[in-house]
Model the fold of this input.
Amino acid sequence: MPFLLSLLSCCLQVAAQNNIATEQKINSLIKKMTLQEKLGMIHANSSFTSNGVARLNIPELVMSDGPHGVRPEHGRDWEKDENVNDSGTYLPTGNTLAATWNPALGYQYGEVLGSEAKWRGKDVILGPGINIIRTPLNGRNFEYLSEDPYLISKMVVGYIQGVQAQYSRSLHLAMDYPIPVSNTKTCR
Done:
C-alpha cells in the first residue's frame, strides 16, 4: 500500500505528500482500483515503465535507471533506440561525489540529474544509492556514496534537493545490500 501511494503521488505530480486533500485523493483512487490494476502499477510492463490506469486517468510511470546519469533512451524491448538525438551527462559515481565532502556540489549534481530527467520525460530517477558500503563484494558499491553514514547523510540531502529543485518528482531509495549469512541480496 505505501508503494502505491508513492507511485500515485508521482503520477499526480504533487509537491507535498503531506497535503491532506492529496492523501484523500490517492486513497480514493486506490479504493477504485482492481487488484490487477494495483499489481500492474508495481510490476514493469516494459523496460523502465509500469502500468498506468487509463480509466482513472493515472498515466504510465516512466523511470530512468542510474543514480549518476540519465540512461540513454531505449525501446520498450531493452534495445537501444537508434537515430535519435540522445545524449546525457554521465556524472561521477556516488562514491566519487561523496569523496568531495561538498554538499553544495551534491546539490549541483542533483540539479543536473533533475533537469535531464525532466527534459527526457522521466517520472522517477532510480537513485540516489544511499546504502552503506559494507563489503567490497557488493557489485553495486560504485552507485553508493560511502561506508560512512554521517557523510552519506550530508551528501544525499543536497543531491535530493537539487533534483527536486528542477523536477519535483519521486526518487527511488530502495535498499540493495548483501546478506552475509546467505550470501544473497535482498531489496527492502
